[in-house]
Specification:
Order of helices and strands: HHEEEEEEEEEEEEEEHHHHEEH
Radius of gyration: 21 Å
Number of domains: 1
Distance between the termini: 18 Å
Number of strands: 16
Strand content: 25-35%
Number of helices: 7
Largest sheet: 6 strands, antiparallel, barrel
CATH class: Mainly Beta
CATH architecture: Beta Barrel
Strand order of the largest sheet: 4-5-8-9-7-6
Length: about 325
């Protein structure tokens, strides 16, 4: 679900898919890359559930026009892979990271690449993620910042590239959460400048005459009581009777610990969490005893060590195919 949150502003990719000019398309792809960080601003104080090996999640948003699915493909090291597609774009990535503890703070250093294709123009964009740091991890006053540089390239068109710098805050400075981006043409000439804050808005142009490219959605009422979830994030856990019948039993929404926590039953949620983790340890022990390696069901490892869709998830979903498969008991 956390990976799907990066698609909250997928309309930026829809917009890019309608722009003939490659330099302008890059502006909207860059805005999309930055918008993925917006929801983290209100979430520094909470930790997501650790997905278990084989856990899946899907999100079909007809209103936004995309289909998304993800799977936990590795436990040691933990790797989550996801894929989304619409009539305008295809999006995929796998997420892995290294943690660095610095006493009162923790750095999360991501490893891997995010990909987006725009079939209308034959574009294939790829970019890295920046470092995230949670400050004051031992207190209740946690806050998060992101810093480093995102480099966005179009693998099928070298007419431009983009660099977005997430500025590291200094305690005496007012530039917290600021970003500065630059789109360069083939010759290295600056053609567009981006500026703003990753949790609020992004502008293209100069300080005197600029256009707002992206603005974060307002937070829902009472978001402080709901773990800082955006409206989009709250909707990700919804499950109506129809979708319930279509989902594989490995879908995140069937996790009992998550449901108990939603209902405010923290004690039972912890009991279920421990039970689920024990089940995972037992499955791993059986695999090791039989010298068998876990095989992800919906993703395959490519030649560059990244994880990509094997094309089966959405096909199975079309004709109730999940009910015909044997699934591991995850919870």
């Amino acid at each position: 679900q956390r990976l799907c949150e990066e698609l909250e502003y997928s309309e930026l990719l829809d917009k890019a898919a309608q722009i003939p000019n490659a330099l302008e398309r890059m502006v909207y792809v860059a805005a999309f890359a930055v918008s993925a960080y917006a929801s983290s601003y209100f979430r520094a104080g909470s930790k997501p559930f650790n997905p278990v090996l084989g856990e899946t999640y899907e999100c079909i948003r007809e209103d936004k026009g995309f289909q998304f699915f993800s799977e936990q493909v590795s436990h040691h090291p933990p790797i989550s892979a996801c894929h989304a597609e619409s009539g305008n774009f295809v999006f995929w990535q796998d997420v892995r990271w290294k943690n660095k503890f610095w006493g009162k703070s923790m750095e999360i250093v991501p490893i891997g690449t995010t990909h987006v294709t725009l079939p209308a123009f034959g574009d294939h964009f790829e970019w890295n993620k920046v470092t995230s740091c949670i400050h004051n991890i031992l207190s209740g006053q946690r806050w998060i910042e992101h810093y480093g540089e995102i480099v966005i390239k179009n693998l099928n068109d070298d007419s431009c590239h983009c660099k977005v710098n997430f500025i590291k805050a200094k305690y005496w400075s007012t530039n917290a959460r600021e970003i500065e981006g630059t789109v360069f043409d083939k010759d290295g000439k600056v053609v567009h400048r981006l500026f703003g804050k990753w949790h609020e808005s992004i502008y293209c142009g100069g300080s005197s005459s600029s256009t707002c490219v992206w603005r974060a959605n307002p937070m829902p009422k009472g978001y402080e009581q709901y773990y800082g979830f955006t409206q989009f994030a709250l909707e990700l856990n919804e499950m109506d009777p129809l979708s319930k019948s279509l989902l594989p039993p490995t879908d995140t929404r069937f996790r009992p610990d998550q449901r108990f926590l939603e209902e405010g039953n923290i004690e039972e949620a912890e009991i279920q969490k421990q039970r689920i983790e024990q089940l995972q340890r037992e499955r791993r022990r059986v695999l090791e005893e039989n010298c068998v390696e876990h095989q992800p069901r919906f993703f395959r490892k490519s030649s560059d060590d990244s994880w990509v869709s094997n094309g089966t998830y959405l096909e199975l979903r079309k004709d109730l195919g999940f009910s015909k498969l044997d699934h591991p008991v995850l919870w």
